[in-house]
Amino acid sequence: MAGSGVAHMRPESDPVLSVDQMVVEFPVGRGQKVHAVSGMNIDLLPGETLGILGESGCGKSSAGRAIMQEPSPTSGTVRLLDHELTGLKIKPLRKARSRMQMIMQDPVSSLNPRRRVRDLVAEGLAIWGYDGDDMDASIRETLTAVGLDPDAVWDRRPHELSGGQCQRVCIARALMMNPDVLICDEPVSALDVSVQAQILNLLERTKEKYDLSMIFIAHDVSVVKNISDRVMVLYLGKTCEVLPSQGMQTRALHPYTRTLIASIPGGEQAFSSDDPVAGDLVEEKPRSAATTELPSPLNPPSGCRFRTRCPLATEQCAAEEPQLREVGQGHFIACHNVATGIV
Ligand SMILES: Nc1ncnc2c1ncn2[C@@H]1O[C@H](COP(=O)(O)OP(=O)(O)OP(=O)(O)O)[C@@H](O)[C@H]1O
Ligand SMILES: [Mg+2]
């Protein structure tokens, strides 16, 4: 999907998290609404990391928040382990949802500025009324696990920490809840490059140690491909392509995914210049999606939503929404032109 479909779902598997036909819309007055996410389907298996990739405004954070039910999606279902979350009232929802934690895009503003590190890390458990004798010991252990010295940061408030330290506190807070699923919404985009690498390493180590399944949201191809097992590429609320992260730079087929890859330094070298898609993208960069505006999510294009920026668009793309279809092992794409053999 910059079309629709469920071809990428794995019905024989037992996912920790399944998202079915999730739609997120925001009414904005005069009968208009923002179509932020339009029919998303996800099955996240135990221990798996799914990367969600797309440019700014394509609906990544809206999807992450809707999975967390903050707020609930407009329609569709979200199932976490044995619980269908979308129909739950606030108390049972809080309980069921505690197994899933989200790390937000901006680490500093996601922490209450008046609270100290000790309380910030304990907050989730405190909401449940838990403040056992072993609480301080677990906070210390978790702070140490995320690379913070408990004695040094214990009484500090967020403004007394660096951005990287704040993100470590956010990760510690999430881990205190012993989650099965961690949703990371651009957890490193607000940090400088050297700290980004430290936090990404920390997330990978943490995932192994705590046996987590992870959704990792980012707009940066190089970050997503390194940390993920599979990558879902999102365009204007629709899924364009789902593919294994390994080798994705050369394997990607959807013109939008190729545009994203071609726009990173050295990315255009992933495709040869006689490749019909990449050739267009590389030679006609000024016309390519990387340099033009995303269409309005109030009134998305008919058919394939990517067609207005796609070098391969035909009349069929305006008339018909492409369905996801399998084009290789674990590789799915929603594009009429790939389907008709142009690529
Ligand atoms: N509460 C809201 N009310 C109205 N529109 C919203 C709301 N939240 C998000 N949107 C719109 O929904 C669309 C998707 O936004 P979202 O924040 O999910 O994008 P994103 O992919 O996370 O972008 P970024 O990479 O910049 O974080 C955008 O057009 C945004 O303006
Ligand atoms: Mg976002």
TrEMBL record:
Name by which UniProt lists this protein: Peptide/nickel transport system ATP-binding protein
Record InterPro entries: AAA+_ATPase, ABC_transp_ATP-bind, ABC_transporter-like_ATP-bd, ABC_transporter-like_CS, Oligopep_ABC_C, P-loop_NTPase
Sorted UniProt keywords: ATP-binding, Nucleotide-binding, Transport
Domain ABC transporter residue range list: 17-261
An example Gene Ontology molecular-function term: ATP hydrolysis activity
Record Pfam families: ABC_tran, oligo_HPY
Transmembrane segments: none
Organism: Nocardioides daedukensis
Stated family: Belongs to the ABC transporter superfamily.
GO biological process, one term: peptide transport
